[in-house]
């Protein structure tokens, strides 16, 4: 089928219609849409282009291994420059390089949670602790108790008492104070009793400091524990607290 109209498309127009249709003039696009003969000729050019593309697909592209080496930074010298120039003009190889670099990139690890400062409380000599039980709710005169700890301007009195109401274990009664604030400022601060040497184990007991600076841990079993008080500026810690049966 031939087109015998005066505005029949030339071969250059048909090639353009296959390779870059947007470059056709408006008149040529309209003619192609209305003329079955020119449309058939354009379709035949399209079939030829598809066959050539299938046979010559990436015929001048570097081998996949070289693209991979280039992406990983293993290639040097003249060959690196040649492949770099090719990648800059070849969208398919540029995409392959981008994918390879994503594969070689080190995994992104989430930022570790900031480590809270730890204040290690020091046990004061017994002569200082003899009169400290008076401020504790339920404090008494058990041997070796109460105990007084200090750390960075913070004082902690700790007393051990028998559990009430027939409960198992013992009670730990604490009174905490600090030189730069009132007891109310510590209200609601969390106190945790942890098993010494087992950091992944959840806290055995958790309580809160009241508005007078007191806290009570009930039914504490015998064992070795770390007492942690989660102050706003860091964790006040008594390490290796021994509680016998």
User: What structural class results from the helix and strand content?
Assistant: alpha+beta
Reported for the largest beta sheet, the result is:
5 strands, mixed
**Strand order in the largest sheet:** 1-10-9-6-7
User: What do the pLDDT scores average to?
Assistant: 83
- Number of helices, where a helix is a run of at least 4 consecutive DSSP H or I residues: 7
End-to-end separation in angstroms reads: 107 Å
**Residues in helix, %:** 25-40%
Count of DSSP E strands? 10
Order of helices and strands: HHHHHHEEHEEEEEEEE
Number of domains: 2
Present the secondary structure layout.
Layout: H1 11-19, H2 26-34, H3 36-56, H4 64-72, H5 77-89, H6 91-104, E1 118-120, E2 122-123, H7 126-129, E3 147-151, E4 154-162, E5 170-178, E6 190-195, E7 205-208, E8 214-220, E9 223-231, E10 234-243
């Amino acid at each position: 089928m031939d087109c015998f109209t005066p505005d029949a498309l030339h071969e250059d127009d048909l090639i353009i219609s296959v390779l870059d249709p947007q470059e056709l003039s408006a008149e040529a696009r309209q003619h192609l849409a209305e003329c079955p003969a020119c449309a058939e000729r354009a379709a035949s050019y399209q079939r030829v282009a598809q066959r050539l593309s299938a046979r010559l697909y990436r015929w001048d592209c570097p081998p996949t291994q070289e693209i991979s080496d280039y992406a990983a930074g293993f290639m040097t010298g003249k060959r690196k420059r040649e492949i770099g120039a090719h990648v800059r003009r070849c969208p398919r190889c540029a995409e392959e390089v981008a994918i390879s670099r994503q594969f070689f990139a080190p995994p992104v690890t989430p930022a570790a949670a900031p480590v809270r400062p730890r204040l290690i409380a020091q046990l004061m000599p017994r002569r200082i602790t003899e009169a400290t039980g008076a401020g504790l709710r339920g404090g008494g005169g058990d041997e070796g108790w109460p105990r007084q700890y200090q750390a960075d301007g913070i004082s902690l009195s700790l007393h051990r008492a028998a559990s009430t109401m027939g409960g198992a274990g013992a009670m730990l009664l604490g009174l905490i104070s600090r030189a730069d604030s009132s007891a109310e400022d510590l209200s609601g601060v969390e106190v945790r009793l942890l098993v010494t040497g087992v950091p992944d184990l959840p806290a055995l007991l958790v309580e809160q400091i009241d508005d007078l600076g007191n806290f009570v841990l009930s039914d504490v079993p015998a064992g070795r524990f770390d007492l942690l008080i989660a102050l706003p500026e860091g964790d006040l810690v008594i390490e290796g607290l021994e509680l016998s049966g």
